[in-house]
Amino acid sequence: MSAESDVNDHGEDAGAPRNFIRTMIDEDLEAGKYQGVVTRFPPEPNGYLHIGHAKSICLNFGLARDYDGRCHLRFDDTNPVKEDVEYVDSIQADVKWLGFDWGEHLFFASDYFERMYSWAESLIEKGLAYVDSQPAEVISAQRGELGKPGIESPHRARSVEENLDLFRRMRAGEFPEGSHVLRARADMTSPNMLMRDPLLYRIKHADHHRTGDAWCIYPMYDYAHCLEDAIEEITHSLCTLEFDNNRELYDWVLDAVGFARPRTEQTEFARLKLEYTVMSKRKLLRLVEEGHVSGWDDPRMPTIAGLRRRGYTPASIQSFCEMIGVAKSNSMVDIGKLEYSIRDDLNARSPRRFCVTEPLKVTVRNLPAGEVVDLDIEEWPSEIGKEGSRSVPFTRELYIERGDFALEPPKGWRRLTPGGEVRLRGAFFLRCEDVVLGEDGEVAELTCTYDVDTLGGKAPDGRKPDGTIHWVSAERGVPCELRLYDRLFTEAEPESDPERDFIEALNDESLVVRRGVIEPSVLGSEPGDRFQFERLGYFMVDLVDSAAGSLVFNRVVTLKDGWAKQVARASGEAPKKEKAPTRVKSERTKRRPERRSREDERVNARQESPELAARYARYKDELGVSEENADILSVDDEVAAFFEGAVAVHADAQSVANWVVNDLLRELKDRELSELAITPAGLGGLVGLLDAGE
Ligand code: ATP
Ligand code: MG
Known about the structure:
The chain has 19 helices and 27 strands. The strands form 7 sheets. Strands 12-25-26-27-23-24-13 form a 7-stranded mixed β-sheet. Helix 2 (51-66) links the parallel strand 1 and strand 2. The protein is elongated. Residues 42-44, 52-53, 55-56, 239-240, 271-272, 279-281 line the site of adenosine-5'-triphosphate.
């Protein structure tokens, strides 16, 4: 299987992304504060890891890798109630699959319970902690509110002896849950509410998945986490922004227990929020438990297990995490970036195949029954630079995509029509001679002829077909199940309305199952094998449900962002798909890439204009811009001029291209480039600074 080859080679990190955390670490090392870098990834084993965790994993393990330090995998298992070994196992498998290794540094917070307990006794002895025996509601009411100091608990003045006695009896199991808690004697007037005598321990008569019934008191996150970091001599403890206010308490506990500086320090970064999905474990658990998805590894889930089952590669997730970077302010990330990462990775690792998802039968009248023309068709486009081909049988009975034929074609239709002629990819020209209608009036099948002189897709007389479509032999093709996955929610921010249950925003069409037919060369493929089904998308043989006699393919991602189109259609706008392909000539055009023009339109445009083709080739071959970016940047004069203006200032064309395509053009949506506040030279300068780590 291909799992191993999916893992990135960590050896080369020449392009390690700059961010404020790396700058801080450089300064710390420069100042001699720490001898090396020790980070940790501290999941609570109460759910499966998701793409947000992947951001934290790539950050923490990536720093350890790049600074020759180490990164611990530590289970923050201080709450026995929701935790489970199933999660402990899945988390380890997921981190490994992502390509990271903690070596010997696997830890469990529960292993430190005894030490944490004795430090708690020492806090009592120092007068820095006390047992409070009031009900939780009273404690919380006494905490006061912002701008208003809290009220001290009547138990705050308990003697050390009384506190020790009560705390020991809490541990011994003498009290019911909720009857006592251990609190820090911190500051009831602090403007930081978390500092108003926070809880350190609570009673929970629950079995723990590792310590069993050894404990019936459990430490709170704010007490435990900093001690775990200190025990393991973590240098940089990275967490998400919500823990901003907890930092004061983190330091308070370490001071109180007596850890001297330099010691572990907490730094916050923005958590990943991704469009069209939810990330909270509680909500993901609801999706699983209420049966909206088939499990934690449902290919629509944002979990690592789901992404793996869908067909994502570790390399694509890593490059996504690099692309989004690490910043200090929260923002919603365009899901297009995740999809871009996987497309970019799969493009070079997925051989091309033909598959028909909604078969329409075609009889090739002038090819005798039983005759098979074995066509040798390249499985890589030339830009990939890989050799290889497969044999594809061309027979009298074929299938084409139902959607590639129109009885009454709309204007600009570039596929098959009655009397029309298309190129069958890798084969011949095909002309539609006759349409057979079924009883329901729908097209039942087509009778066609092929032109034997057009083998390879070129006509000796130079005539042009109406377009190029894919096809499969009906006689030799293999039936298969196709699982066409789409976004789990119909809205970019399913949680945006607090009044509404996010479940209501689920996309009914996030999974469409089709019976398709695929070319016979896929027989013998293994679970985990990935292909590009031409014109359809990237697919992977399902890891669980596929078997030799009944292949199941998951659609990992479409070839282009089809979502924008669907949204337009739903809102009553003319579907862009059906629009006549505008000719892009060298005069100024209003069309813009990605959202506005489709790849095949751009290909057509280049076929019509040698000028555009030359520009495309120059971006790709001379400037080293990726095929996908060159395609987008070269086709529109305005965009091309902007790009070239920026490159004139900052010569790293690949970097500029990424910025223009991934940020500028996405940001632009329907506005014009000229409406932007930034000039080409300004962008070039900016990218230059960013590349230099400023
Ligand atoms: P939840 O609140 O849904 O339970 P969590 O953040 O508490 O999730 P943990 O298991 O505690 O989940 O997370 C482990 C680590 O992963 C933490 O350091 C946390 O900061 C980080 N993490 C969790 N979610 C994200 C996210 N969306 N983006 C970046 N880091 C995240
Ligand atoms: Mg947590």
